[in-house]
Amino acid sequence: QVQLVESGGGLVQAGGSLRLSCAASGRSFSSYDMGWFRQAPGKEREFVAVIDWSGGSTYYADSVKGRFTISRDNAKNTVYLQMNSLKPEDTAVYYCASGLNVALIGGGKNSNAYRYWGQGTQVTVSS
């Protein structure tokens, strides 16, 4: 069993930055690919970014490419999402998720491929 706990969300002005963290408990964190998804009110959950188990491969949604950076520290069982140049349209609840080999399957975009999910953290970007 893996438990995921997100933190770091909050309110920020457009153009600002936030860093989200996702701490994992349980064994074998370093075996799992880790992804970030988000869901805005009235919209479906959408893929944001994924990093493979080694940290060697990352994939991003086109909407965040060049602004967001996903990284992981396997020694700390934590994955991060550095978000820069935030826009009001980035406002959403952000979720981290883990799964085996999901980065290889469609670049990690399929939420059904992930096994474990966190409870989410709210990010609000004001204009």
Give the integer mean of the pLDDT values: 96
Shape: globular
**pLDDT < 50 runs, ≥5 residues:** none
The rounded distance between the terminal residues' Cα atoms is: 40 Å
Q: Fraction of residues in helices?
A: under 10%
Order of helices and strands: EEEEEEEEEEE
* Broad structural category: mainly beta
**What Rg is obtained from the alpha carbons, in whole angstroms?**
13 Å
How many DSSP-defined strands?
11
Q: Report the portion of residues in β strands.
A: over 45%
Q: What's this, in brief?
A:
The chain is mostly beta strands and 127 residues long. The protein contains no helices and 11 strands.
What tags apply to this protein structure?
about 130 residues, mainly beta, about 0% helix, seven-stranded mixed β-sheet, four-stranded antiparallel β-sheet, 11 strands
Structural features, described:
0% of the residues lie in helices and 48% in strands. It is mostly beta strands and 127 residues long.
Write the layout of secondary structure elements.
Elements: E1 3-7, E2 10-13, E3 18-25, E4 33-39, E5 46-51, E6 58-60, E7 68-73, E8 78-83, E9 92-99, E10 116-117, E11 121-126
Parallel strand pairs: 2-11
Antiparallel strand pairs: 1-3, 3-8, 4-5, 4-9, 5-6, 7-8, 9-10, 9-11
